[in-house]
Amino acid sequence: MNMRLYVNIDHVATVRQARKTDEPDPVRAAVLVEMAGADGITVHLREDRRHIQDRDVALLMETLRTGLNLELAASGEIVDLACSWAPLQATLVPEKRQEITTEGGLDLATAERRGVVGGALRRLEGAGIRTSLFIGPEEDAIRAAVDLGADAVELHTGEYANTRGEERREQLARVNAGASLARKLNLDVHAGHGLTYENVTPIAAIPEIEELNIGHSIVSRAIFTGMEAAVREMATLIRRARAPR
Fold this sequence. Notes:
Elements: E1 4-8, H1 10-19, H2 26-35, E2 40-44, H3 54-63, E3 68-72, H4 76-85, E4 89-92, H5 111-126, E5 130-135, H6 139-148, E6 152-156, H7 158-161, H8 165-184, E7 188-192, H9 200-204, E8 211-214, H10 216-225, H11 227-242
Parallel strand pairs: 1-2, 1-8, 2-3, 3-4, 4-5, 5-6, 6-7, 7-8
């Protein structure tokens, strides 16, 4: 199975919003990402609009030749916007105002949270949008995603990325087991968070994973090498990880 690389361009907008000006333009960055051969673009429209703005998403919908994966919280206003834009895919993620970046997977442990997430999923599906849930690689969360009717899960790789040595090997095993279970339960399997040029290869080698979402590391590399070179370098690492041994 080939793996798709979706590039998250949120932090291009982060730099722009630091000065509240019109550059660097994330839409222009998305065009360069596509030219470099990425399979799609990911953006997170946060409720506080700290980086990506509504206008960015609208322009991306008009501009992209690949597809847009819109990350969003399961909240009414943002879900309304997603349904009106109808991106290729919507990924429901947890969101806290005080966090620097998304800190973990969705909490699906309570009936109340499952109700909120399930309601958002139904609305997105009704608008013809492919759906995904950003979750930890735990069995309970994966089975909850099946029960809620999601098309896919994106497994949170933050614990893997933030550890070293034996602990990292244990976290890799967790992602492996989660990906295997999700595939057996007929979910499409994506992964992302904290992946870099140094740690992506073992995740990219997991055969059940069909899509990686990577942003900060690519945008960081692009500062020094340019966006196209940064995307091509990451894509090469992923292809090599999936090459027959």
